[in-house]
Write a sequence for this structure.
């Protein structure tokens, strides 16, 4: 049985932990709202970009000079995995889920005899992957200390990936990130970005039978549009991941606060029981002392 | 009859409303877009977008570069930045121009694509200075 003093200290320390976790939950909730708004605001551009890209892709389909960003290098040897995680922990399984998915995918690809390269975005993912796959990591990017992600950040990654493709260093690129589904659910998603995935069937822009004209011409536009589309995809997954991170942190801090509450309850009960036992003991001592006289 | 104009940047939808005519800075020259224009996808150079109501210009915006999708009903401009002309900063334009010129000097002249994009950046910077001036 721990002493009364020890119990009192425990209770106080759990109480102050609870204060921290509940404050973190509030902070995560407000950051989540902002991240969601940002993700929402990025949607129109991505949608319209997608529409244009589809029109262009349809018109160069089958052409032998189609750019590698669209159709790949024609090979399937070197895979680039872009693992998007957060820079901070205390968000439940948020970071390790991406880490695990990346590791499994890397193992699978390697067992098929392919080369794997990893670009780790976010400090936590880098730390996780460094433990097991450090030889495959070709670079890492961290946004620690940055208040919000802007399009320029995504563009930088896009440029980097495009340059690797142009230098024939990679054949296929995949982003692995947490897609924000709801506050309690973040789904680890593997999304192939190079070669660009085929557009969903059935949905096409209705032009009443007409086709687009291009100015200057399809290939020049594609050459400019594709890097931009790549950056947009990066941007979207960064934003999804940011929203997911705050959602995950909110949930896990909520749980932590509740657990701390349970613990305080149990400890206080122990404390009170011990206090009563002490009083009873003292009473018995007094009574039996009085009887002896 | 108006055409629906939308100007979108990666970070948000900047403008969406019907206009009678819009003049966009296409890479091969300015073009006016009205309702019923044949469908086109156009690359933009740095320059100003003019919004017309009747035959009056009601709003002017500077765009650095981007793309436009034109269909008979609408005109969608995808730009990295679009700033109202009154807010265009000349110093900022000059800084960008100087940067672009430095990048052009540094660019590998044997790489046509790199040279082209550096030239585009110079052109865009120059357009920004002109728009401010």
């Amino acid at each position: 049985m721990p002493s009364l003093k020890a119990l009192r200290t425990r209770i106080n320390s759990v109480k102050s932990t609870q204060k921290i976790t509940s404050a973190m939950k509030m902070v995560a909730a407000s950051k989540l709202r902002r991240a969601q708004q940002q993700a929402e605001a990025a949607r129109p551009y991505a949608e319209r970009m997608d529409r244009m890209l589809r029109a262009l892709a349809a018109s160069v389909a089958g052409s032998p000079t189609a750019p590698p960003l669209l159709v790949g290098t024609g090979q399937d040897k070197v895979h680039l995995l872009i693992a998007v995680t957060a820079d901070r922990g205390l968000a439940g399984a948020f970071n390790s889920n991406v880490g695990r998915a990346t590791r499994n995918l890397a193992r699978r690809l390697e067992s098929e005899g392919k080369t794997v390269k990893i670009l780790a975005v976010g400090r936590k993912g880098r730390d996780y992957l460094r433990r097991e796959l450090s030889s495959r990591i070709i670079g890492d990017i961290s946004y620690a200390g940055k208040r919000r992600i802007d399009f320029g950040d995504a563009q930088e990654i896009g440029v980097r990936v495009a340059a690797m493709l142009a230098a024939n260093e990679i054949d296929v690129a995949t982003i692995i990130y947490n897609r924000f589904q709801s506050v309690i659910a973040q789904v680890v998603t593997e999304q192939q970005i190079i070669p660009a995935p085929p557009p969903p069937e059935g949905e096409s822009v209705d032009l009443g039978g007409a086709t687009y004209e291009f100015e200057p011409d399809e290939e020049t536009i594609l050459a400019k549009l594709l890097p931009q589309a790549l950056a947009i995809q990066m941007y979207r997954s960064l934003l999804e991941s940011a929203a997911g991170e705050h959602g995950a942190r909110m949930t896990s801090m909520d749980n932590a606060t509740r657990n701390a509450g349970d613990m305080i309850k149990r400890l206080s009960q122990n404390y009170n029981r011990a206090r009563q036992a002490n009083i009873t003991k003292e009473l018995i001592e007094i009574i039996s002392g009085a009887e002896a006289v | 009859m108006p055409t629906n104009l939308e100007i979108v940047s990666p970070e948000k939808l900047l403008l969406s409303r019907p206009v009678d005519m819009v003049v966009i800075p296409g890479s091969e020259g300015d073009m006016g877009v009205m309702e019923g224009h044949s469908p086109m996808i156009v690359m933009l150079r740095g320059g100003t977008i003019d919004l017309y109501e009747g035959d009056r210009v009601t709003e002017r915006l500077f765009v650095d570069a981007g793309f436009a999708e034109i269909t008979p009903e609408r005109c969608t401009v995808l730009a990295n930045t679009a700033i109202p002309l009154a807010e265009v900063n000349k110093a900022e334009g000059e800084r960008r121009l100087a940067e672009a010129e430095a990048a052009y000097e540094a660019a590998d002249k044997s790489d046509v694509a790199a040279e082209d994009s550096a030239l585009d950046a110079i052109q865009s910077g120059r357009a920004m200075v002109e728009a401010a001036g």
User: Anything to note?
Assistant: Residues 175 and 191 of chain A are 5 Å apart (CA to CA). Chain A has a mean pLDDT of 88. The helical segments of chain A are 4-60, 68-71, 94-111, 123-133, 151-166, 218-292.
